[in-house]
Amino acid sequence: MLLHDTALIYGRYARQSLRSRFALLFGVLTPLLYLLFFGPLLTGLPLGGRGSSWQVLVPGLLLQLGLFGALFAGFAIIMEKGQGVVERMRVTPVSRLALLLGRVLRDATVFVFQAVLLVLAALVMGLRAPLAGIVIGFAFVALLTLSLASLSYALGMLVRTPQEFGPLINMVSMPSMLLSGLMLPMSLAPRWLDVLSHLVPFRYLVDAVRDAYVGRYASAHMLYGVLVAVGFAAFSVIVGTRVFRTAGA
Amino acid sequence: MAAVISAAGLARTFQTKRGPVAAVRGIDLTVAEGEILGLLGPNGAGKTTTLRMLTTLLAPTGGTASIAGHDLASDPAGVRRACGYVAQSGGVDGQITVREELVTQGRLYRLTKHQAMARAEELAHALGMDELLDRKAGTLSGGRRRRLDIAMALTHRPRVLFLDEPTTGLDPGSRANLWSLVGRLREERGTTVFLTTHYLDEADALCDRLVVVDRGVVAAEGTPSALKLRHGGSTDASLQDAFLAISAGQTPKDAQHAAP
């Protein structure tokens, strides 16, 4: 039943995404601008680590795409609550977990699609990385999206208006981006900043994807990255499902 | 006739920043199979909260209820299968076609794809919406949109239909249309209908029995004519007189507030 319900909800929202193709492409714009206008500044700089500057920057941009996009997923559910769509689904016998999973899997699909576009553009700019590493990068984007979208939907269910939602998300997204070393590796940071960034889960993901992009699949970074990504996803889906089950929204 | 809905001491207290607020303080009611019951009361009396509890959207903080033989607390999935619910705000996405919304809704109620598609056609036909099936829901007029909302709640042929202020905001023609639809549902399918309303003419014309709630408890109940006789002085009294007398028994201010 969970599978049936999840597929049903996924289908409904995937068709919704296909109807707004413009929004589908628009999400790639910000990371694409970084790629075009920020990426070239790094090519001659000593960034530590192995590989070219593109192998450092593109993993960061991929996770930025997931971070900013997925965190705002909850906006849609605030609108749906207003239309009564959420309640109308919650009075049916549909699985509560499926109401969440169907949505976040759609989001993961959308962001992986956008990530593919971004990587294609990066290849044109000069990125060279092993195929397996690139695929691993997509897997991390999918897991990150799943996690953040779950939390975002949970928050969207709990707040009443978009005006409450926006500032809360901004408060999380900007520090997360800066502290996880998405743009430049945290190995360049002074000690206090490096320590602080280890408290942000995304730090581990970006380190893991950077390793994948230089072909190091069995590193300590990769192990921590996988553990944090899977653990964070499990935590987020549990929180999200609990909210979908009980919210009096 | 057997009771298809029964509630005893149903209560809900919300925790707010300024302390607990008792929206529903303890409601006892029974609804017979095939009955059309109207729940009346001033704004804030607890009508919507009661409906949301009976449809499993909101967990009661006290009391018990059973719907179509399923206990609200122990078998919410059974309650959901037996009920249809139309919220005040409806609940369709304006960007999606009528057909797609109806089919998805049927499948949420676990119909097969084939059944859901057949049911969508059948409902559209029964509700005079054949030619609207492939229109986007957002392009429908208010009255047709309301009929779609109701069709959405009927895809699984529920035994009990809950309607929260079904005719609020509709023009007189659409209202009359909706009344006859509700009447027909009961005649043809024996569906039990539980609705809330602010319109006393609607309660008078459509409902077999009325339950008046005020401040979270049942203030009066009976057939429209019994209420007129008991609270308005004679069966010729208007339901409004009876209603005001009932509410005035609690607080005159609320009664004025409730008059349409």
TrEMBL record, chain A:
Q: What is a GO molecular function of this protein?
A: ABC-type transporter activity
Domain (ABC transmembrane type-2): residue spans on this chain? 22-247
Q: Does the keyword Glycoprotein apply?
A: no
- InterPro entries documented for this protein: ABC2_TM (IPR013525), ABC2_TM_bact-type (IPR047817), ABC_2_transport (IPR000412), Nod_factor_ABC_transporter (IPR051784)
According to the UniProt entry, where is the signal peptide?
none
Per the record, the GO terms for biological process are: response to antibiotic
User: What are the transmembrane regions?
Assistant: 22-42, 54-79, 100-125, 131-156, 168-188, 222-244
Q: How does it sit in the membrane?
A: Multi-pass membrane protein
One Pfam family from the UniProt entry? Answer: ABC2_membrane
Indicate yes or no for the key word Membrane: yes
Q: Which UniProt keywords apply?
A: Antibiotic resistance, Cell membrane, Membrane, Transmembrane, Transmembrane helix, Transport
| Gene Ontology CC annotations of this record | ATP-binding cassette (ABC) transporter complex
Q: Where in the cell is it found?
A: Cell membrane; Membrane
Q: Which family does it belong to?
A: Belongs to the ABC-2 integral membrane protein family.
Q: State the name under which the record lists this protein.
A: Transport permease protein
Q: What is the lineage of its organism?
A: Bacteria, Bacillati, Actinomycetota, Actinomycetes, Kitasatosporales
From TrEMBL, chain B:
SUPFAM superfamilies documented for this protein = P-loop containing nucleoside triphosphate hydrolases (SSF52540)
Which residue ranges does the record assign to the ABC transporter domain? 5-240
Q: Which Pfam families match?
A: ABC_tran (PF00005)
Superkingdom per UniProt: Bacteria
Question: Which GO BP terms, alphabetically?
Answer: response to antibiotic
Query: Listed GO cellular component terms?
Result: plasma membrane
Entry's localization field: Cell membrane
Keyword set, alphabetical order = Antibiotic resistance, ATP-binding, Nucleotide-binding, Transport
In Gene Ontology terms, what is one molecular function of this protein?
ATP binding
Q: Does the keyword Protein transport apply?
A: no
Task: Kindly give the membrane topology term recorded for this protein.
Answer: Peripheral membrane protein
**InterPro entries noted in UniProt:** AAA+_ATPase, ABC_transporter-like_ATP-bd, ABC_transporter_ATP-binding, P-loop_NTPase
The name on file for this protein is ABC transporter ATP-binding protein
